[in-house]
Structures are given as structure tokens and as C-alpha cells.
Amino acid sequence: MKKNCLEIVRQKCESCQGCALAKNRNNVVFSDGDASTARIVLIGEAPGEMEDETGRPFVGRAGQLLTEFLSDAGISRDKDLYIINTVKCRPPENRVPTDEEKAACRKFLDAQIDIIKPDAIILCGATALKSFVNLDKKQTISKVRGQWMTITVDGVDYKAMTIFHPSYLLRNHSMAEGSPRRLMQQDLKNIKDTILPDVNHVDDVTSDNNVAFGSLVSA
Ligand code: SF4
Fold it and tell me: Homologous superfamily of 2-218 in CATH?
């Protein structure tokens, strides 16, 4: 049912000419992840070059880093997350999408959340955060990240947390206490422990597809 509804939205999105970003796109970047198993929606900013080429979100260097952080926290990108962007077409030179572009694309974002009805939403980076929260001047992503909050989409309240965008982490390599990478680890562990306490992907390798390996491990 979810997949059917999402497919209808995807088809509308792929033919969308709702803003100027349609002109130069190679692909509409609609989503990644398994809608039937995902309990968390992760929202990024916009497709970059690799995403535009492949039609998948978060597949460039930043996406690979995000996948590693998720995996370290015990969160499966493929099973636990449904990954989407604030806008579905690549802005020129990877600039931040304008308010007009975000507004034009909002119907797809809201529809995706409404169909998935996740247990939680991860707002990845400032653009995703500002799409749902009006920040006052003193509130920066560094101050807001890591805090659970409630956001409302189409009249439904969702538990949400902001995390750093992985492109920021590509420029900050330190793993020292209090560094952005260390805070990212903490935030994803908090999300895993709060939303997915029952999930253990170590078990996945001992599934029916891995009978021999399962016997070996349990011996
Ligand atoms: S960014 Fe969104 S609104 Fe703009 S053309 Fe692409 S799908 Fe349509």
C-alpha cells in the first residue's frame, strides 16, 4: 500500500516542472531506502552532482560518510531509513535551494512523510531544519542539533532530531571530544537507542540466507 502510494507521488515528481530546477536536471532524486521497513525518515538538502547522475540521494562522498556513521550506530541505511531531500532536483553549483524552490517542492516532501508516517524524522543539516522550524537569531544548528523536538506535518506530530549534514563533517576531521564528528556519533546513537532499541542488525547476517555462517557463529 505504502509503495503504491509512493509510486504515484514518484511519477508526479518525475514529470514535475514546478520550479526552475527542472531545466537542468538529469534525474529527479526522489528517495532511497525501503518504505516497507523504514521507521525513520531522513531529510537532507538537495541532490548534488552524483545524486543527479544516479537518481539516488546521499551517494557522493558526503553520502558515503553518512552511511558509515549510520552503520557505526547500528542503523541500516537500507532497512531503517527512508531518505529524501528538501528539493528533488539539483540546484546549479550545489547552491542552497531558494525559498521559492523549497515551497514548490514541499508537496512532495509532505506527501512522502504522510505516506511513511515514520516513528521519527532526522533533519540532516540547516536547510532541512529551517524547512520545519523557525529559528531565532541565537539558534544555530550547533545549538539545536541533538535535541528531540516535535514537528508537525499535515496536522500530524512527529518526533524529530537535527543532526549535522555530512558535508560539514567532510571539512571537520577531528574525532576529539566535542568535535562535530563525535557529536554526530552521539546523536545517531541517541536516535538508535530511542527509536530502534529492538533492532540488531548483527542478527541479519545469521538470516536464512546465511545458514552456514549462522551455524558457525552459534556453534
Ligand atoms: S525541485 Fe521539486 S518543484 Fe522543482 S522541478 Fe524538481 S520536483 Fe518540481
Answer: Uracil-DNA glycosylase-like domain (3.40.470.10)
